[in-house]
Amino acid sequence: MRRLMLLRHAKTEHDAPSGHDHDRRLDERGRLDAAAIGTWIGRHPPLPDAVKVSTAVRARQTWEIARDAIMAAREQVAQPSAEWLDEIYGAEPAQLLQIIRMAAATDPAHLMLIGHNPGMHELALMLSGSGDAAAKKALEDNLPTAGVAVLDFATDDWNEVAFRRGKLVRFTSPKLLKQAPDD
Predict the structure, then answer these.
(1) What is the pTM of this model?
(2) pLDDT tens-digit map of 37-75
């Protein structure tokens, strides 16, 4: 089995001082949400072995804050390897699927991708062939900022990950965590 976690970057400032979308940073709510979702991930193993992160400032900041929260929630755990990829920024589902399949080279059992909508939301929907009906319903409208979709694939080869072959195990977001804090 392979597990994939799709995490959208957390809430950001409206405009970057540079004027470039790529440079937008997390706002205060985004920093809090990234920590909350990281804590949730840390409390719901298995944890990612490898993480592929968009090079956009907001995605990198989301990972750094979430990583620290994951590590704080789980003592004596090895830190996942992280790779920064320009290709994730603005990627469509087919491009993101290729990035996921490239994980076969290092073959982590559990992979996390941190990126942007609309590609991440569309990818989550396209990969989900089965799974938790309530999670699928909640995910239909949006993959919100700092939202995470967790999918399992009945394969040991990332090259076999394909649309409609995933089982949506969980979907949560900071908003949902506030509604059900013990989840």
Answers:
(1) 0.95
(2) 999 999 999 999 999 999 999 999 999 999 999 998 877
Ramachandran region, residue 59 (left: φ > 0; alpha: ψ -120 to 50; beta: rest)? alpha
- Residue 19 Rama label (left phi>0; alpha psi -120 to 50; beta): left
Q: Is the dihedral of CA 84, 86, 92, 95 positive or negative?
A: negative
Question: In the block, which residue shows the tokens 């319903």?
Answer: 137
CB 149 within 8 A of CB 124: yes
Q: Does domain 2-179 have CATH number 1.20.1050.10?
A: no
**Inter-helix orientation angle 133-140/119-127, to 10°:** 150
Domain boundaries, the chain: 2-179
Q: 3: buried, middle or exposed (CB in 10 Å: 19+, 13-18, 0-12)?
A: buried
Task: Please state whether the peptide bond connecting residue 46 to the residue before it is cis, i.e. omega within 30 degrees of 0.
Answer: yes
